Every structure is written in structure tokens, then in C-alpha cells.
Amino acid sequence: MLTVDFGRLGVGPGTSVIDVGCGAGRHSFEAYRRGADVVAFDQNTEDLNAVDEILQAMKEQGEAPEGARAEAVKGDALDLPYADGTFDVVIASEILEHVPADDRAIAELVRVLKPGGSLAITVPRWLPERICWMLSDEYHANEGGHVRIYRADALRNKVLAHDLRYTFSHHAHALHSPFWWLKCAVGTSKNDHPAVAAYHKLLVWDMVDQPWITRRAEELLNPLVGKSVALYFEKPAAFQEPAAVQESATPDDVEVTRARD
């Protein structure tokens, strides 16, 4: 289940890609399938071990073009261990909502992007996320949970402050919004609830079989209740690093909570 539209990123053989906060690795796997040289980057060792196993299996089974390279790297998104302008494409999907110091994280994403390269950022969309927060504290107020709700224009402006060019945006995963509203209503840990289990089965069917009826329904619903918003940027070829951007968050930009002890 991809949130990023790879068709907009020009990922192919020889493209250098870093997937920051790769999680289970879905975007790293797609970039590798397309022949890119991929860094799957995360701070979670357990996730990275699983991602590395799948990357190795893809290589052994010929699912990635000859010559493509991929590695799983553990590290901190606030201090990426790479030189300025290392990657052609930087992906940060569904991570910034977890990061208190998001301005610093964005600065690092921009720093390691090559001039002329593309940056894709996705976060939960404001309305579906706001409903989840209203229905359940358990959904967000936990260690490692969501610390803010973004408005797309506020996030876009945070990135544009680094002198990148905004190119496109879209919404994704509309069918997942009602699923999470349902989970928040009955309890996020109650995966065996009959309604939750039935809806999960529908989502698995959709992801595995991709029937036309659910694909068409999601296409129509994405502009209304898409669970995620994806923003795309380009770094100008004649890029000069701007003055340091102050880390800031005003009430108009985000809604903030702290994880409970």
C-alpha cells in the first residue's frame, strides 16, 4: 500500500533514494523494485531487521533489477549521517507527525537532497486525523504517538521556508479513514471487535486483489476523506542553503499533545 506516487518522483535504475522513517519498508521495496539504490532508514531495530530480510529476499529472487542496491540503516532523522546533497529522492512518509522537533527534521531532509532532486512528504490529513483525536486519546497520546495534526498549507510553508519549490499534492487511503474512526470509537486495541475485524478483512481484500469497485471508490473519496496528504517538492538546481530556520509551531499551524506517562 503506497502513499507516495512514484510516477512523480522519476525513480529508476541508478536513482539514489533514502526512505526516512521507513517503518515496515513499503516505499523502500517499491524504489528497489524500480532499480534505485535505496537506503531504508529508521530508528527501530526490529523493523529494520525485517526490512533487511525482505530486501535480501528480493535480491535473491530477482525482484530488483541487476545492479540495484539496498541497505537498512539505523539512525536519527534529526541527524542524518549523510553529506549534503547525497540523494536524488528523499521520502518521509507518515513520520513528521511523530517528531516534536519537526523543523529540524525537515531541515535534514532538505540538506541531504541533491540540487534538482525531489522530496516527498506524507502526513495524516487534518480532518480524518482530527476525528480520530476526538474519538480516542489512546490513538495519539502514547509514547511514540502523534504529537500534532498538520494542516497541509502549514506543512507546505515549513518546507518552502527552505527555498524548495512546491510541485504537487494529493490525498490517499480514503477507505482507511472510516476504519480508524471505527477503531477509535470501540478502542484502538480491540482488533477482535466484529466490526473492526470485518472492515480489516475488506481492506486486506482491497490491497491484495485491488478490485475495481474499491479502487474506484477510493479514487472518488480521496479528495473528501483521504487519510493521508502527500506533498511534493523540488530542490532548485542552483540551490543555496538558506539561513537557519527557527524551530517554531504556532497554534494556527498545528495542534499539539504530549505523550502520557
UniProtKB/TrEMBL annotation:
Annotated region described as Disordered, given as residue ranges: 241-261
The Methyltransferase type domain sits at 18-121
State the coiled-coil residue ranges. Answer: none
Q: Which InterPro entries match?
A: Erg6_SMT_methyltransf (IPR050447), Methyltransf_11 (IPR013216), SAM-dependent_MTases_sf (IPR029063)
Any one GO MF term held by the record is:
methyltransferase activity
What Pfam families does this protein map onto?
Methyltransf_11 (PF08241)
Enzyme class, top EC level, equals transferase
Tell me a GO biological process for this protein.
methylation
Q: E.C. number, please?
A: 2.1.-.-
Keywords (A to Z) from UniProt: Methyltransferase, Transferase
**Name of this chain's protein:** Class I SAM-dependent methyltransferase
Its taxonomic path starts at: Bacteria, Bacillati, Actinomycetota, Actinomycetes, Mycobacteriales
